[in-house]
Amino acid sequence: MSSQDTPEENLPAEPPHGTDAEIAPSDALVPDPGLPPHLPRRQDIDERAAKRSERAVAGLFTLSMLATIGFIAGFVAIDVDKIIYVWPIGHISALNFTLGCTLGIALFAIGAGAVHWARTLMSDEEVVDERHPIEAPPEVRQRVIQDFRKGAGESQFGRRKLIRNTMFGALALVPLSGVVLLRDLGPLPGDKLRHTLWAKGKLLINQNTNEPMKPSDITVGSLTFAKPDGLEETAEDFQEQIAKAALMIVRLEPEDIKDKRELEWGHEGIVAFSKICTHVGCPISLYEQQTHHVLCPCHQSTFDLADGARVIFGPAGHALPQLRISVNSDGYLEALGDFTEPVGPSFWERG
């Protein structure tokens, strides 16, 4: 039988009006029931319960302080190579385990104390505030101030001095963990930044030929790189030492040298300056013969070698340090001491 022949009694009947099957209009939805009635907590009506909560919160903050002290003590006292067995983890570093546990307890105790304080002692009454324009009228601003003062009073921050003081102590001690970790970034430099391998009597060795240098080896307008005698490229600390001791040698006409000290610290117009740029420590290698300028290729700091290697352009903060040189009895160029100031970039305690 085709669908056109289907009798009307076999078609699904329409739901009667007024039944649950009919979709209700939007204005017939369940109304907002509003906030439930506020029920006081035990701490709100029993001061002894409030005191217990206060002691619990203070205890958590105190635990945080003790854990922070334990973090610092463990960092100082435990050997970095000590290994312990912790079930079920296995063999781990005693230092890492101690630092992780103490710092975790310190942070957790502060959070748990704050949550317990908010749930048991601070006001838990919900307040409904209708949305308002961004620019609040004066009466609204005044009400906000009053609400803030009321909330501050209800938090019992001023009354619960034990909580307040222990919270301040916990928050003040926790940042010390980060400060202590900074010490683990590496050994302190001491005075290593202020000294190089140059010393009185050290021969100037040509870095290209690895031979001592004589004044006759250096022509006017040339740029030569030198290292101190005894520093070999096969040395384990070669890169560390050459980064401070690298030297560039130029020969100028004595009458072209403007700085009196530069002339006295050189030999017949031959002057020696640090090769390390005083901006971020890049090696200087570009020399302009006609102007006696050297250029750092990294950030274009420019130094005038005829005027004490002072900065004439770029971000470098001060002139290149000069090494005092002379000629020994064998006719070779030698240093008369170390640099009189630290080489390379500036640092905050630089003299």
Automatic annotation (TrEMBL):
One of its GO terms (cellular component) is plasma membrane. Keywords: 2Fe-2S, Cell membrane, Disulfide bond, Electron transport, Iron, Iron-sulfur, Membrane, Metal-binding, Oxidoreductase, Respiratory chain, Transmembrane, Transmembrane helix, Transport. InterPro entries: QcrA_N, Rieske_2Fe-2S, Rieske_2Fe-2S_sf, Rieske_Fe-S_prot. GO terms for molecular function: 2 iron, 2 sulfur cluster binding; metal ion binding; monooxygenase activity; oxidoreductase activity, acting on paired donors, with incorporation or reduction of molecular oxygen. Residues 1-41 are annotated as: Disordered. It is a multi-pass membrane protein. The chain crosses the membrane at residues 57-78, 84-112, 162-182. It is found in: Cell membrane. Residues 239-334 form the Rieske domain. The cytochrome bc1 complex is composed of a cytochrome b (QcrB), the Rieske iron-sulfur protein (QcrA) and a diheme cytochrome c (QcrC) subunit. Belongs to the Rieske iron-sulfur protein family. Iron-sulfur subunit of the cytochrome bc1 complex, an essential component of the respiratory electron transport chain required for ATP synthesis. The bc1 complex catalyzes the oxidation of menaquinol and the reduction of cytochrome c in the respiratory chain. The bc1 complex operates through a Q-cycle mechanism that couples electron transfer to generation of the proton gradient that drives ATP synthesis. This is Cytochrome bc1 complex Rieske iron-sulfur subunit. It comes from Wenjunlia tyrosinilytica.
